[in-house]
Amino acid sequence: MNNSDNKTRRGFVKACALVTGAPFVSRLSWAAGSPMQKLQYAGIGLGGRGMFDVQSISKHEKVKMIAGADVDSATAKKLEVRMEGVKTFSDWREMFEIMGKDIDVVSVSTPDHMHGIMAMSAMNLGKHVYVQKPLAQTIGECRTMQATARRNKVIVQMGTQGASSFYDRMAVDLVQRKLIGKITEAWVFCGKSWGDKNPLPDREDPIPDGLDWDGWLGVGEKRPYMKKYYHPKNWRKRQGFGTGTLGDMGCHIFNSMYRGLALTAPKRVRSQTAVPNEHNWTSNERVEYEFPGTPFTDGDLKVFWISGRQRAPEELTALIPNDVKFRFGCLLKGEEGVLLLRHGNAPMLLPIEKYQGVRPKKMKAIGHHNAFIDAILDGDRSRLLSPIDFAAPMTESILLGNVAMQNSPDWLEWDAANLDFTNNDKANASVQRTYRSGWEIMGV
Hints:
Elements: H1 9-16, E1 39-44, H2 49-58, E2 63-69, H3 73-82, E3 87-89, H4 92-99, E4 105-108, H5 115-124, E5 128-132, H6 139-152, E6 156-159, H7 166-176, E7 183-190, H8 213-217, H9 244-253, H10 255-260, E8 268-271, E9 286-291, E10 297-307, H11 314-317, E11 328-334, E12 338-342, E13 348-350, H12 368-378, H13 388-406, E14 412-415, E15 420-421, H14 425-428
Parallel strand pairs: 1-2, 1-4, 2-3, 4-5, 5-6, 7-10
Antiparallel strand pairs: 7-11, 8-9, 8-14, 9-10, 11-12, 12-13, 14-15
Helix pairs in contact: 5-6, 6-13, 9-13
C-alpha cells in the first residue's frame, strides 16, 4: 500500500487491528427521513458488469443515480444517453472532488487492480460501497479494506450475486444439516481458464481516441498500450491487473462451501501448477489448501481448487448422472455421501437414490443489490450475504492460492493474524502491493 504509516508488514498488521473494533452501523438514518428521500448513487466502471451493477442498483425505488466514471469516454457517453441527468467523468477522483458531498453510495466495477484504492477512497469519504469480486487484488488490500469499512462505519457488499440466490443458500442449508455427515474433502472446480503461456509482446500500439490509458493503468505499473492485450477484456490473465481464473471465479464458486462449512483462514497452501511467466497467470490451475476443522468437517479439511482441464477424482464424479452438467461447482465428500454444489444451479445429494426424499428448506427471495441498498436504508445488515466481514476473509483465502502459484510447488505456512508466511520471505512480498507514484487513497 502507498500509505506512510504502513512502511512494514508489522505496521500494516497493527493498522489492521481496527478490524476488531466497533460493528458496522449506517452513517445515515434514512428510515427516519422523508419517504421521498433517495440515496444519491455514483458508479465507477460503466461497461460490461459495471452497467449490470448500475442498472440493478439504480432500479431501487430509493436510489437516484447522479454520477458515473469510466476511463473510456464512449462507455461514459452511453450512460449519459441511457440515464438523463447523470454527470460522467473520465477520472473517478475528479468525480469525488466535484460531487463527493452529494454522493451516498458507490459501486466499483473495474479491473481487479483498482478495487482497493477506489473502494477505500469512497469509504474514507463516508460512502457505502458495492465492490465487484474479487474484493481486491491482494491479501493486504482485503485486510485494509475491512479495517477501513469498520473505521468509517459504512456498509460494504461484494458483488457475488449468486450468494443471495436460492441455489447458494440451499447449498449452505444442506451442508449444515449434515445430510452426508461431516465433510472429509472438497474439490472446487471451474471449466473456465484465464491464462496465457506466451511471453509479454514487445510492441506498442496507438492509444484509442477517448481512452485514458494512464487512468486505466491507475495504481498499476506504467506500460505501453497494446491493442486487446489488457483492455477491454484480457486483463484478467495479467498478473499486474487481474487475478486469473482463481481470482475471477473463486469468489463465486467457493462461496457456499466456505459459508456452509464455516471456514476461516487456511493453515497452509500449495500449488502444483506454476504461473507460466512473471506477467501472466496459468491456464490449468491446481491448488491445495488445508483449513482448520469446523463443526461441519471431519477434522482439518483439504480443499482442492482446479481449473481448465484439471478434473476432480473419478470416485466422486462417477456418482453424477450423465445428463447433469457440472462445469463450475464444488464436490463435497462426506462420511455418508457426496454433495454437488453447482454454480448457478440447484445442489444435488449423491447418490441420488439415497436422498430422493430430502426436501429443501423454504426461503424468501433475496436480491443481492437490493439487499445492499435496504441495509443502508434501515441499518440491518443481517440480510447481506457478502458483507465485507465475510467477503474479506474468503477473498484472502482465495488469493493465497495465487501466491502459492507464484511459489509452486512449495507449501506456504500461513499466519493469518500477522499476515505472514512463516516459511517463505519471497511469498511475503506478494501479500501487499505498492501503488504507482501519484496514486494514493483519498481521505487518508
